[in-house]
Amino acid sequence: MTIPILLLAAGSASRMRGGDKLLEDVHGAPCLQVMAKRALATGQPVVVTLPSSDHPRAACLRGLDLLVVEVPDANLGMSRSLQRGVSALPNTAKAVMILPADMPDITTDDMNQILNIFLEAKAPAMRATTQDGAAGHPTLIDAGLFEHFQELDGDKGANALLSALGKSLKFHALKGDRARTDLDTPEDWSAWRARSQ
Question: Whole-prediction pTM value?
């Protein structure tokens, strides 16, 4: 079954104070490249949103078998990345896995685990949580809900869409806090490297 993985990488990374969190080193390679390769290793199609195809982030994706989707209005919020990314999915997509690209603790095994449980649950959507139950990423959303992405606005992502599902939204816990470990600032990255050594 085709369930593409949508990596969100079009944000400005303004909290990095001049740096780019998606080009930070993760085990010897840029974070975005590492996350793209992990997504590709699931065997599912991978779509990556970028501000533009000539953005510096694009260089680390060259040679990878994935689709880059430009989001020139990414400054208007995450909703724009979701709308453009979902619109670019292949017609064969039965659902989409959404994952911000600044979450280097999420592994290929995590993605596969969520994919498999989603298929077994036959739910309209599923969201990963921390071990303690705090909602995070990745998120999986069935193709039957794709049209609702066009109703999103601002920087709240798909939260409104997921909230509207009520009890039909399923959750699955990943180990530790990885489902919520996104790295937005130089301090976040320093702390992550200190505990990842």
Answer: 0.94
Which residues make Cβ contacts (< 8 Å) with residue 13, sequence separation at least 6? 19, 20, 21, 22, 102, 184
* Record: fold of 5-196: Spore Coat Polysaccharide Biosynthesis Protein SpsA; Chain A (3.90.550)
| Among 132, 135, 144, 131, residue whose Cα is nearest residue 170 | 135
Is the preceding omega at residue 138 within 30 degrees of 0, hence cis? yes
Q: Please, which residues bridge with residue 23 across strands? A: none
Give the domain ranges of the chain: 5-196
> Tens-of-pLDDT digits for all 197 residues of the chain?
899 999 999 987 666 565 788 999 998 999 999 999 999 999 999 999 999 999 999 999 999 999 999 999 888 888 899 999 999 999 999 999 999 999 999 999 999 999 999 999 889 999 999 999 999 999 999 999 999 898 888 777 788 888 889 999 999 999 999 999 988 888 888 888 888 76
Q: Which two tokens stand for residue 133?
A: 């139950």
Which strand ranges, in their side-by-side order, compose the sheet holding 5-8? 67-70, 46-50, 5-8, 95-100, 135-142, 125-129, 169-173
